[in-house]
Each structure stands twice: as structure tokens, then as C-alpha cells.
Amino acid sequence: MTNNTLHNLLNAFAQGQTAFDNVLIKNANLQAQLLPFVSLRKACMPGANFRHAVLPGANFEGAIFRGSNFEHANLLAANLAWANLAQSDLGHTLLASANLVGINLANANLVGASMPGADLTSANLRNANLTGVNLKGANLSKANLFGARIDAKALSEAILEFTVMPNGECVTHPREQHPTMPNLANVMTYTRLAVALEPHRGIQPASSAPASSQANTQATAANPRQESVSSASSEAQQASKHIWFQFTENRADLDLTVTTAQKL
Description:
Layout lengths: L2 H12 L137 H5 L4 E4 L5 E3 L8 H9 L21 H12 L4 H14 L3 E8 L4 E8 L1
Antiparallel strand pairs: 1-2, 3-4
Helix pairs in contact: 4-5
């Protein structure tokens, strides 16, 4: 597609036409264009510039926008299911309630993106930068976050079901509940396949500790010479208010369940 044809496309849109499916154009400059509900299904537009474009309700299903710029674009409730936006810039992009099922966002920049309520089922987010992203109520079921940069707080507000975490673990929890911060902090630092516990399981009171730690405390108290040291240590532990998290790993291949305790 030539620049002249792109100009014709914009003119056609201004006259009421919204469907431009299967178009082919490279490095299209659509910066700051007002294109609500435009349809570019299965379009091939690598390297396109949609920076600051207003695209609410747009239909980009199956489109190829690899290496494109959507920075600060408005894609509210847009359909990007199975679209290819690998290596694209979506920094501070509005994607609230967007359909992102199966989207390819590998190595993409999503710093500060707003995605509450978005459906990211089966999305490819490998090595993506999701720093500061808003995922409140977003569905990340079966999504691949391997190598992605994201914090536990953002994920604690999303739905995780058979989701591949940044460290390669497969995590799930009941759909009706959100994972807790301790759960996510734990599974994001472990390096083995695991299942995160539900919010109401595995969390002991702040004063609790594994049996081995309790035994050490009792042994110390039994020694008069170490009684004062033990008392000071107990006060320090109480002040730190560490949470002991009991973590269970189900290994079907070994036919056993491994339970460990981790201080967060």
C-alpha cells in the first residue's frame, strides 16, 4: 500500500467507512489519528506508528503490527485477539476491557500500560516489560510470562490459572479468588514447577514459625546462659513481623507432596 493509498484510506474513514480488513502497509504513520471502531482485521502493518492514536472499539483481530508504536494510544475495549505485536511499544497505552486473547506481546514494552479487565488468556508475554502495569481484574489464564518484568502487586490483582510465571513456574488458584502477595512473592522466587496455594491456606500467624525454628527456640530457652539472648531474639522477631509461608508442591511424577516453609 502506498502513502497515497493510506491517504485514501483516511479519507474513506472520514466519509464513514470503517472496515479496511486485510490491508498491507509497512511503516504507516497514523500518529494521533482519531479512528474509533476502525476494523483492520488480519491487516499486515509492521512498524506502524499509532502513537497517541484514539482507537476505542477498534478491531485488530489477527493483525500483524510487529515492531509498531502504540505508545499512549487509546485502545479501550479494542479487539486484538491473536494479533502480533511482538517487539512493539505499548508504553502507557490504555487497554482497559480489551480482548487480548492469544496476542503476541513477546519482548514488547508495556511500561505503565492500563489493562484493567482485559482478557489476556493464552497471551504470549515472554520477556515483556510490564513495569507499573495495571492488571486489576485482568485474565491471565494460560498466559506465558516467562522472563517478563513484572511485580507481585500487579499480578495479585489478576486472574491466574495455569499461568507461566516469569521464572517458568506454572501457577494457578481458584478463579473466584485473587492470589495473595505472600503467595506470589514465593512462587516468583522459586525455580521449580509449583502450584500456588489459595489465599486462606498455608499462611500462619506472624508469630508462627516452622517446627525446626520452634525447637531451636526451646533449646535456647533451656540453657540459662542463653536465656537473655533468646529473649532478645524473640523480641526482634516479633518486631520484624515476618510471615512464615507454608508452600506445598505437588509432584505427580514422584507421587509425593513437598511442603516447605519460607520466611518472607
